[in-house]
Design brief:
Strands 1-2-3-4 form a 4-stranded antiparallel β-sheet. The protein has 2 helices and 4 strands; from the N terminus they run E-E-E-E-H-H. 32% of the residues are buried. Strand 3 and strand 4 form a beta hairpin. It has one domain: Enolase-like, domain 1. By secondary structure, the chain is α+β, with helices and mostly antiparallel strands.
Length: 96
């Protein structure tokens, strides 16, 4: 399992954070910071069930609808960063 986040420079809170785990109950991908609540990305979970590698989720896009948007990052930017951080989290989890 691994958690990777993009920090807001002043507060150090996560603009976007992604947690990835692979266990007995399957793969889980959870996102924090991008919306007003934490949520899972089922499309990534399904892809990672087949192949637990960063490449498996390269084509998975997260819809920016509902993502936070402010001076630190637009909804589109945050949605794009979910994919980037998810791939990093998978790579980190594989190293452990």
């Amino acid at each position: 399992a691994a958690y990777v986040k993009l920090r807001q420079p002043a507060s150090r809170f996560a603009l976007v954070g992604v947690f990835v785990s692979q266990g007995d109950q399957g793969v889980r991908v959870a996102v924090t910071g991008a919306r007003s609540h934490a949520f899972r990305v089922r499309e990534m979970e399904q892809a990672l069930e087949r192949d637990f590698s960063p490449q498996a989720i390269e084509g998975v896009k997260v819809d920016p609808t509902g993502c936070n948007s402010d001076l630190h990052g637009s909804a589109e930017y945050r949605a794009a960063m979910i994919g980037v951080l998810a791939r990093r989290a998978v790579a980190k989890a594989r190293e452990q």
